[in-house]
Design goal:
alpha/beta; TIM Barrel; globular
Length: about 250
Amino acid sequence: MVREIIRSTNVIVNTISLLEMRTCSERLASINQRLLEAAKRAGRGLEEVELIAVSKTYPHTAIREMVEAGQMLFGESRVQEAKVKIPLLPSQVRWHFIGHLQRNKVRQALPLFEMFHGIDSMALASDINRIAAETGAHPRILLEVNLAGEASKFGFTPDSLCQDFERLLGLERVQVEGLMIIPPVAENPEDSRRYFAALRGLRDSLQNQFQVVLPHLSMGMSSDFEVAVEEGATLVRVGTALFGERKVEG
């Protein structure tokens, strides 16, 4: 009798796990389908856009389920949290840092992430370059732009970015690969379109002025990623639409 109860319990647990896995797979498939449709509307291919599953505040178990569903690229925004979670997950999982990187956390962050999205000042970029030289790293970075001039957000202004851009390109250890934006919060995703279009325009202007290639635009989140793809996003950052509502703000 005890063995039968244990066997039945295991069957129930396994069934629940399969249901949870199916839900995770369905969410991921739904987001990928929406990405595909948005790319088609813009005359682009899905291969031009990469989905970053924003896993900040979610436990490693939730991330593992997403990995098993086929998602391999994740975004974190707190170095201490990432240091705990990353070793618990498969080594082939890829990680981007998508938040504000504190200058005193650079040395800890460099070995963990393949790309840093929110580089918001010349001082931070210089620190990354210096520490990368000391550690042998060659970090890839995106420059955050505060197009709306919001006091609550970090980022270069368009003018300061243009003024600092030549110096940024002169940093020997970092590779500047594009721009990133978090537009003002809006109920209607269409309200974000002008910021996405403006970021693309700024990227194009920098490419022409400085004769460089900036392949990436990191823009669009759960509420507006389709509009971002239509306006040229190459990296979209989606969290709640994949994992569900966060219990902890982050």
